[in-house]
Specification:
By secondary structure, the protein is of the alpha/beta class. The protein has a single domain, classed as Rossmann fold (3-Layer(aba) Sandwich), CATH 3.40.50. The protein contains 7 helices and 12 strands.
């Protein structure tokens, strides 16, 4: 159910190292580009799990039989931090339909907060592969809420949840709420600690602020 690509040596770990590095983080364009690059790597790895069919392609000198995607997955992201990450997937799955979830943390005076969904835009997901993209899987609650809002009464063929970084607590939360037949979780690294404010430690900070600037 959980696939941690960061356990193997690849260029993915270089990009994640730069995303974590406070010196590199000062360059917001590079931060966004690294998120996009990581998205492309995940997109390729997930493509190995999708269904293919044989197609005859006419070339200038004849014809060739090639294996092509049977159907493109639906790409969904949680705004705003997920946008550069989402672009990496869209670079590969350029014919995919897309879905977007607008969610935010509503903070209370006692320091607690709750996640609320403002808006969902989505195509038909019935019988289709869904890739739900969010750079950070912290508590797991936002990802679960977004997934359920997206799916509603529909039954996707399978859902891939993808995050650059995850906490142990977030992974366990997803495991408690979804079966392996429903969901595969893809991550680039798993960190042990989660703060009371649901920030991953060591993590990388606020991905949305680092990509687009601080919000009020």
């Amino acid at each position: 159910m959980v696939i941690n690509l960061g356990k193997e040596n690849s260029i993915l770990n270089q990009f994640i190292a730069e995303l974590r590095d406070t010196e590199v983080q000062n360059h917001s364009m590079l931060f966004r580009k690294n998120m996009e690059r990581v998205g492309e790597i995940f997109a390729y790895e997930i493509s190995r799990r999708l269904a293919y069919e044989t197609k005859e392609v006419i070339t200038p000198l004849g014809s060739a039989e090639v294996s092509v995607l049977r159907t493109y997955p639906v790409l969904a992201t949680i705004l705003r931090a997920g946008l550069p990450f989402h672009q990496g997937f869209l670079n590969f799955y350029d014919k995919s339909e897309n879905a977007f979830v607008s969610a935010y943390r509503k903070h209370h005076k006692d320091g607690s907060f709750e996640v609320q969904i403002e808006y969902v835009s989505k195509p038909d997901l019935e019988g289709r592969t869904l890739i739900l993209i969010d750079p950070m899987l912290a508590s797991g609650y936002s990802m679960t809420l977004a997934c359920r809002e997206l799916i509603g009464d529909m039954k996707p063929l399978h859902t891939h949840m993808v995050s650059i970084l995850a906490s142990v607590e977030g992974i366990n939360y997803i495991k408690r709420n979804f079966s392996s037949s429903e969901v595969t979780v893809w991550v680039g690294a798993i960190d042990d600690e989660l703060t009371a404010q649901a920030y991953i430690v060591p993590g990388l900070g606020d991905a949305g602020d680092l990509a687009f600037g601080k919000k009020l």
